[in-house]
Design goal:
By secondary structure, this protein is an alpha+beta fold. It contains 6 helices and 9 strands, in the order βαβααββββααβββα.
Amino acid sequence: MQPIDLDSWPRKQHFELFKNFTQPYFNVCVQLDAKTLFSYCKAQRISFFQAYVYCTLKACHAYEPIMLRIIKQTPWLLTSTRASVVELDEEECFIFSYFDYMGSFKEFSAHSEKVSKQAKSNPLFSDAFANTEGQADLIHISVLPWLNFSAFSHAFSEGQSLGIPKFVFGQYNKHSGAMPLAIDVHHSLMDGLHVARFIKILQTEIDSFKCL
């Protein structure tokens, strides 16, 4: 991570305004066009889930504002991020899988397959959970493939926030190709304009995805 010079940062006043809010996140829900990605994954017999998680990580690395975090009440810029992904185990209880970003989807697919299998064989409070949760270099991803939602809210607790963005992907519509996405970001670090620009980058990654 790299520290941000707060005194010269254009968002200094915005950062100071929102950083101590009880609930400093704001939420936006959009409809992604995932038809091209879904069709490609089906034709190539690869995981649609892995593909859009990979696209999300790739888009994050391509857009600086979403890589900002709050460490000890000051802004920092990540040089890389990982995904804390909610998955279901055999008992339909959720666990967290921790996926690293890889330079190619093939590498990412093999890595995430291994991580998922291991995570599903452990309890929620696993060693991976103890060693990873609470660290700043994450994004949080949840998946609700049963719901075509148009609004979403997260559980949250009071206290200091790291500014980690949260993504929730909903049910893919096979007829329209639409898939809902809820994104929560910390208002000290991003505004609606930044979310819109990020969504555009994510949509581009989804449209241009290739299994290489």
